[in-house]
Amino acid sequence: MRELINFGLDVAKTCGVTYADVRVEKVKIQSIAIKNGKAEEISDSESYGFGIRTLVNGRWGFASSSKVNEEEVQKIVALSCEIAKASAFLKKKDVVLSPVEPIKENYETPVEINPFTVSLEKKLSTLYEAEEILRKERDIKISQASMNFIFKDKTFASTEGTWIKQKIMMSGAGIAATAIGESDVQIRSYPNSHGGQFTTSGYELIDKLRLKDNAEKIAGEAVALLKAEECPSKITTVVLGGSQLALQVHESIGHPIELDRVLGTEVSLAGTSFLTPDKLNHLKIGSDIVNITADATIPQGLGTFGYDDEGIPAKKVDIVRNGLFIGYINSRETAAETGQSCNGTMRADGWNRIPLIRMTNINLLPGEPSFKELIADTKDGIYLETNKSWSIDDKRLNFQFGTEIGWEIKNGKIKGMLKNPNYTGITPEFWNACDAISNKDSWIIWGTPNCGKGEPMQVAQTGHGASPARFRNIQVGVGK
Amino acid sequence: MTHKEIEKISKKILNLSPADQTEVLLISQDSALTRFANNQIHQNVAEKNVKLSIRVIDNKRTGTTSTNILSDKSIEDALKRALEIANSTSPDPDFKSLPKKKQHKEMSLFSKNTAEYQPIDRAKEISILISKANREDLTAAGAFDTGSLTIGITNSLGIFKTASLTEASINTVFMSPSSSGYADSYEKDVKNINCHRLADLAACKALKSIEPVAIKPGSYKVILEPAAVADMLMYLAFCGFGALAYQERRSFMSGKLGQKITGENITIWDDGTSPDNLGLPFDFEGTPKQKIILIENGLAKNVVYDSYTAHKEDKESTGHALPAPNVYGPQASNLFLKNGGCSTDEMIASTKKGILVTRFHYTNIEDPLKTILTGMTRDGTFLIENGEIICGVKNLRFTQNILTALSNVEMISNKTELKQTFFGLCRTPTLKIDDFNFTGVTEF
Asked: ipTM greater than 0.85, yes or no?
């Protein structure tokens, strides 16, 4: 492989590039999903290929192929350079990259048990054990359990002399119970919706999740939701559970701090960002207790890696400190354009995609009180748990989230169950209304395995550390 | 990849497989996309890829694998692994059979113009948009995608279907500091894309909505242009036009067939074989696609099936299977909403007070059974008063029961447009709807 990569870089140099990089990736994915006592999906897939990014005449070209041989490398380098020249046909300025020291390193996700060596029988048995408990409730009409494993083996090399080999392992699992009544469908999931919890780790995660031990609880809750009161429409205090808050961080902080969005290069699909450069170091985006980092180094975060897809070492960066917005996530190009230092957040979905600025682990740092103390300190409000729907405008200001379940909080105690809860707000107003964040005992790095961005669409895996937090004067029950 | 190469690989796998039934899906793609923003090209990519998927069924146990490595060893390994997976699972008593061979309608889906389109050709077309933006003191962004796809589906019951198709799509957003305007086009033949027309449309919307005013959320008459209607319809389809959701009683169609669920002026169907929609003539199991009436004059009529869901009701597949493994069930992905008899200008002229919406953004499902969606307007939202567009308005959030909205349709345009969505293609007219619920407003 080393010879082939060097060959590609050598061919690129002869084509007149000022910079080129090559990524060769092999990705293996295993998906197992069972439903109502039967296998719904069991599949193994692999994808292998290479992509070459070139800078010619000051602009980018990228081409990729699943045929990994010398003849194809030569063709694809030429195509990449031809594309770059076409880009330069409509350029306003040359791309400038922030400087890097060339490095030669390896990185591997620390894994206790390689999930691809665990037998399918064992995985299915673990899932069936949990799933059959869900079915014990009569009104549970759809019982689901799933596991997913992703292994990425990639080599990155550039004309600047960087050479990095990485092996990233991701694991995830979850269960879900759907209760169906006369004219109502209610779902509860554990440990999170949209497939459960995901981390960079091995099969050891699955045992830690204790799916079976939590099945009875969520099945009971799904059934109880059929008869629960509708979430009222009012302005009230809201306490968000950790996994819902993780998605709130993802949508209302994580995306707006992507510097490519800020500079307008994601306009037509995803939009721009309210965090324009004039807001940096000036906007009080949250209350004093709101502290947020982008940390690609934190163990087991789903957005944890050794080096990004431009060869920059993983970093921890402050984004919000004591409520003040102080940092973006960026790339070599956007860092150079804005006079920042590069913080290494460029990742590609695979060999056939260019890297884009992607969230790493965007973490809301824990606060002082325990979760119990936070609830005890809340006189009147609503506690919301587990995401069901999400929507946010194209500058990331007006959001609306629905959760699977809610409960009233009365005089410091969690009381009656509420169904179909949702809440809405404007991002900076919302984060400035945060007056309590629970402590590290309930702080979990939640994995978001399906973050979409870019054209062609790319899916990235991101992480979000969060513990339950309280927000005042929030509109709930929208559209009721 | 040629049709002959597909046949060779597929038949080899069928010959090697000892399973009761085997299906081979091969997709070969050659695609390219140019993105532009801030009046220059900033991303420009190309991809050549293949995907081989093997599904085996042995004693009603299913295993699926996929790979893009087409060496003999890799193919044999993929088949072996699919068999191992099947052997590890329990039989599914509801599985009856893969589909059998049926004749499909031959369609012309390939354009040499599109297949041979070059990076510099895309750049030259984009320059039309950027020149217009520069002339109007606006900035243009967007994406221009051209590519070809060859697909082959083969199974051990005699199905061997291949098709080659091309697609060319372009979207653009023109922006001023306080406004934006959107236009798009989706074609088989790239030569049918008219960037001058798109530039005029996007620029007009951006210029007309400069310095938008804020209006209060509430219930309004709306005129939804085709991109907004298509977004709404595709989410509706995802919520419940497929047989899996219907059979699991989580679809708004469950228990409602024959009943009135929208206004009588609404007829929705799915037809992948229509030249007006650019679908494949067969689904991902090789079953010919059928035209299926989903809602007729307001009455819920049918849902769409793949072989698995069809056999559960002793029916035939309607040709709406997605590639295996598929947890979503069959999907209607070539939708039509029947046109009416008026023009969009007549809709505007007849509106005392209302909102015109160009498109929605980040729509999501709040309640699939009640068909409640939420999302934002973007890239051209206008206030109409006394039959005229008065000004742009700051973008609004809707939270709306879609079947209710389709019960309140007052006017339907005579012209339709083909729109590309996350879930497929949709040909739809413009709709004028009463009592559409906007529940929030944003700052721009």
From this structure: yes
Touching A: B residues 29-88, CB under 8 Å: 31-51, 61-69, 81-82, 84-85, 88
Encoding tokens for residue B369? 């059974």
Please count the residue pairs, one from chain A and one from chain B, whose beta carbons lie less than 8 angstroms apart.
256
Distance from CA of A90 to the nearest CA of B (A): 5
Is residue B31 within a helix (H) or strand (E), and if so which, with residue range?
strand B21-37
Q: Which residues of chain A have pLDDT under 50?
A: none
pLDDT reported for residue B220 = 98
Which one of A35, A38, A420 has the shortest CB-CB distance to B367? Answer: A420
pLDDT tens by residue, A79-114: 999 999 999 999 999 999 999 999 999 999 999 999
Task: Give chain B's length.
Answer: 444
pLDDT digits (tens, 9 = 90+) for B71-108: 999 999 999 999 999 999 999 999 999 999 999 888 99
Q: Determine contact, residues A421/A240, Cβ cutoff 8 Å.
A: no
CA B348 to chain CA centroid, nearest Å? 28
Residues whose CB falls within 8 Å of the CB of residue B105, separated by 6 or more in sequence, listed in order: B273, B281, B288
pLDDT digits (tens, 9 = 90+) for B222-237: 999 999 999 999 999 9
Give φ, ψ of B350 to 5 degrees.
Answer: -90, 5
Residue A41 contacts B where some CB pair is shorter than 8 Å: yes
Which bin fits B435, alpha (ψ -120 to 50), beta or left (φ > 0)? left
Query: How far, in Å, CA of A31 to CA of A146, rounded?
Result: 8
For chain A, which domains are there?
2-227 (3.30.2290.10), 230-476 (no CATH)
Whether the Cβ atoms of residue A423 and residue A381 lie closer than 8 Å to each other: no
Return the amino acid letter for B267: T
Picking from A393, A404, A476 by the largest number of B CB atoms within 10 A of its own CB, the best residue to mutate is: A393
Angle (CA) A148 A152 A156, round 5°:
160
At A125, which amino acid appears?
S
What are the boundaries of each domain within chain B?
3-198, 212-444
B205 at A interface, C-beta within 8 A: no
Q: For chain A, how are helix, strand and coil distributed in percent, rounded to 5?
A: 25, 40, 35
**Residue B267 to residue B298: CA distance in whole angstroms:** 6
The residues pairing with B342 across neighbouring beta strands, listed in sequence order, are B413
Identify the CA nearest to A401 among candidates A378, A420, A374. A420
pLDDT digits (tens, 9 = 90+) for A309-349: 999 999 999 999 999 999 999 999 999 999 999 999 999 99
Count of C-beta atoms within a 10 Å radius of residue A448: 27
Nearest to A15 by CA among A56, A43, A72: A56
Which spans in B350-438 are helix H?
A: 402-407
Q: C-alpha dihedral over A460, A465, A471, A477, to 10 degrees?
A: 40
Residue B24 burial (C-beta neighbours within 10 Å; 0-12, 13-18, 19+): buried
Q: CA-CA distance, B91 to B60, in Å (whole number)? A: 5
Interface membership of A142 toward B (CB under 8 Å): yes
For residue A134, how many C-alpha atoms fall within 13 Å in the half-sphere facing its CB? 31
Crossing angle for the helix pair B119-135 and B195-208, to the nearest 10 degrees: 30
Q: Does position B355 have pLDDT exceeding 90, yes or no? A: yes
Dihedrals φ, ψ of B324, to 5°?
-75, 150
Q: Is B3-198 CATH 3.30.2290.10?
A: yes
